[in-house]
Amino acid sequence: MIKFIDLLKLAGVYLNSYKIHCAAGRDDSPLEAFFEGRFKAWQEHQNQQNFRCDEIISLIYLQEDKWLFAGLYQVLGVKHRKQGENSWFEYGTKEMAGIEHLTGRLVIQFRKRFIASHLIGTKYIDKLLVSEIREKRMRVSDFPGYNAVNLSYRLLRTVVRKNMPQWKAALSNVSGVYLVKDNHTGKHFVGSAHGGDTIWHQWVSFAISGHGEVKALQRLLSREVGDYQFNFQFSILEICDLKANKDYILSRTEHWKAVLQSVVFGYNEK
Fold first, then answer.
1. Is 131 exposed, middle or buried (0-12, 13-18, 19+ CB in 10 A)?
2. In the prediction, which pLDDT does 252 show?
3. What strand order describes the sheet that includes 232-240?
């Protein structure tokens, strides 16, 4: 595999003081922000002064050791913002020329086994390997992999309404355990698909009704004003073959309920 730094050199792009941003947030998915064309603004909002550098190499987590190249940005400046008790840093950035045609097309292989997400570039740059150059920019219609699924209700509804083939094929071929997170309260619902049922079938029900026939969510939506289901975020905890034993899937569901305490503090009722 060619190193990412060598690809930059071939494009005539040379860096000064730079950081590698490994974006993998869950509350507001960076991949979703990228699909919606707002990743630049997503990245510019930081809780800490994380970009004390000249350039940012932006990567978005896909699955396992795979990351999507989301652009190379020049740091123009930063402002410290405050509103009440909240404070944050708002950066000004500009996507740099020379490699912008690979934004959203380049898949990087990078084994990251630590939590830090704003990395000193020179320390890790040689570990970024070019895994794939896609023919076209990745879009919401492209299924990113089971481990990378993190859909807002709005995007889930779009996926279902447009019957996107990659998503339907992937989710129609697995059962397993999934998570619905309420981004307003932080509460969870752990659901499962088993006995020949598929995650696609379950999520179509959510896309249509907003609550997926889950009684606790039905009651929640009935008492909240407006389209409260737009606070929901959908991800996958585990996948199983459609022929997997129902009792096994239910046992894994109970495991995740216990881990996330979704009966005591969430929307699971038992």
1. middle
2. 97
3. 150-152, 232-240, 175-182, 188-193
